[in-house]
Amino acid sequence: MALLLLWLAGTVGIYTGKKFLERNEDIITKSASYQQQSITKNVALHQDNMGLLLYYLKFNFVNETPKLAALNIGMRDLNPSIQGVTIRNLEEQKHNSDFYNPANAAAGNFDFSFVLVFLFPLVIIAFCYNLISEDQEKGTWKLLSVQSGNLRRLIDAKIMIRVLAVSVIYLILLLTAVVWVGIPLDSHLFIFTGIGWLYLVFWFALCRWIISFQGSSAQNALSLVVCWVAMNFIIPMSANLIFQKIYPVKEGLEAQIAQREGYHNKWDEAKAPTMQKFYEAYPQFSKYKVDENVSSSYVWYYAMQHAGDMEAAVAAKVYDQQLKYRNDAATYLGYILPNIQTQLMGSKEAKTGMENYLAYGEALQKFHESQRLFFYPFIFSEQQAGMVDWSKQTVKVFNDSRKSDLFQLLLPYLFFITLLLILSNQKFKKLC
Amino acid sequence: MLKTVNLHKKYNEYTALKSLNLEVGKGEIFALLGQNGAGKSTTINILLGLLKATSGDAYINGISVTEHPQEIKQHLAYIPETVLLYPNLTGIENLDFFSKIAGFNYTKKELSELLLRTGLQEIAHEKDLGGYSKGMRQKVGIAIALAKDAKVLLLDEPTSGLDPIATADFTEIVRQLGQQGRTVLMATHDIFNAVSVATNIGIMKQGELVQHLPSKSFTAEEVQELYLKTI
Q: Is the terminal CB of chain A with fewer CB neighbours within 10 Å at N or C?
């Protein structure tokens, strides 16, 4: 019954991920045609005014979402997998995106990783908490002890049967996901599968250690549930509070304010200092001069937009840095908490974690810059829109190709599994 | 075959066994008599490796119980006062399971024959143990001990609660085991049964072996009188 429920929960988790992926893919697919339609419509409207045309045009930049993300939605529900940016200031646009219902985000998604991290251990606890104590409480332990010359082997055989049963369900679910979602059989899937399975083995090793104390069924169950609650809620939540205190990310707001003030204040200031900074950043555009007395100029306008980003640059960098520090701190926490490790490494393989988000942000900045550099000459030399080959302005995709370090991935699991096996073996020596 | 040397067991201030010296040879059946708390079950539990002696040692086939608690289990079979088995398994399944963990892989026919030897009717073999009477469960317990083919049998009040016919059947099986060369140490309250089956009788009081009698030299009534005087 427990295995059936686990299979059902896992299937629902895969379905949740599949729906998320489909919605994501649908948005990305439609965005290509919407971008094309927007370009066609705006080019027709602002044929003679490239400055105004580029004020409106948004260019989509996709953070490639692997199929594996169906098993670990991670932060992708909060951080969009596609962002449309104009060539105006970036900082405001970066954080001005749609995201899904925050209430849903707070609770997290009921995806496969949720089932793996939270529900599988509960079933493992239910399977193992009374492996010794049940026989002791029913009175069969004495006879078992006398009959068996090696009780540890008998207990291990019982555990192995449970490991096998849980592993079969785990693999059936992954196989279902591969077929149903179409996840490619690549190294990411194998690593995801491997760390998930090691996480399950960790829980079996923890159960083995707890039952080796030969406490009563109630004591064992309570100890294991306390471990589950502490590992999944108390420690991560406390750590999160500490991380927030140590690495506050108020710079996100600061960057936005700095950008807005940096840009808006320039309207009331002399043009020369703004242009001076712009020419320093882009000497190639210094030939496009702006007269102090002219009321409007796209060179000046885009220089002001650029100034906004320049003034927000420090805060933006600190913001990204603080997020990175938080992620690093969580990674270190993962070294001692296999559930955190499973979530983080699962997200890493599915490219749905913080590292991917930061890498995408960096790539988005480069993309934004390349679009600026491409369009500035057309705008500043007041070219006709027809001079641009708009067919090349397709949706661009960021592919996060960073590889995982297997040593870093596996070490926490192997360390804790080995440690728990050694500790329980010590206790089992006294088994009689 | 079975020997205890100055076996001593203390629970905090309470002394459960005081320097017990006992020797049971091959083919001998030794019955330990005594009141509750006299130290009979403590002796058996130490021999089984389930309890650690405070001092002294016990030997099964010359192997120290203290030094090799796991190894000595290969040479022992045990029948408790109440044989507790898995109620959702049948008699034959229980026998199969407990034989397998002892390292014996019997065919279904052999398992059935073992149960028949104990007097458990064939019709009961395939029934869940939950529906068995105490006597029937004891018979499965005996079959488990027989299946292990152990040289030494430790019986802890095995006939307690059995009806007279079941007790007589059981006594006969124990007698046969002795004749086959098995060493049997049996803790019991049943003086008549002890006299009828045992080769030697010991009376324990407050952790000490206070009487050691060859049972052939005494009638049940004489042993009973001695027992009542001793305790």
A: N
CA atoms within 13 A on the CB side of B166: 17
pTM of the model: 0.83
Is the minimum CB–CB distance between B141 and chain A shorter than 8 Å?
A: yes
Phi-psi region of A367 (alpha: psi -120 to 50; beta: other; left: phi over 0): alpha
Using a CB-CB cut-off of 8 Å, the residues of chain A touching B86 are 140
Q: What is the DSSP letter of B230?
A: H
**Residues on chain B touching A147 (C-beta within 8 angstroms):** 73, 98, 101-102, 144, 148
Element spanning A385, H or E: none
- In order of start, what are the domains of chain B with their CATH numbers? 2-88+150-230 (3.40.50.300)
Distance in Å, alpha carbon of A149 to nearest chain B alpha carbon: 5
Which positions 116-175 of A are in contact with B (Cβ < 8 Å)? 138-140, 142-151, 154
User: Chain A partners of B50 at a C-beta cutoff of 8 Å?
Assistant: 142, 145-146, 432
Q: Where are the alpha helices (DSSP H) in A212-282?
A: 217-229, 235-246, 251-264, 271-281
Residue B60 pairs with which residues in a beta bridge?
B2, B63
State the complex-level ipTM. Answer: 0.86
Beta strands B29-34; B183-188: pairing state: parallel
Residue pair B207/B177 in contact by the 8 Å Cβ criterion: no
Question: Mind giving me the DSSP string for B39-53?
Answer: SHHHHHHHHTTSS--
Is A429 near chain B, with CB under 8 Å?
no
Reported as a single tens digit per residue, the pLDDT across A90-139 is 877 776 655 444 454 455 678 999 999 999 999 999 999 999 999 989 88
Largest CA distance in chain A: 102
How many angstroms separate the CA atoms of A213 and A426, rounded? 10
How close B150 comes to chain A (CA, Å)? 10
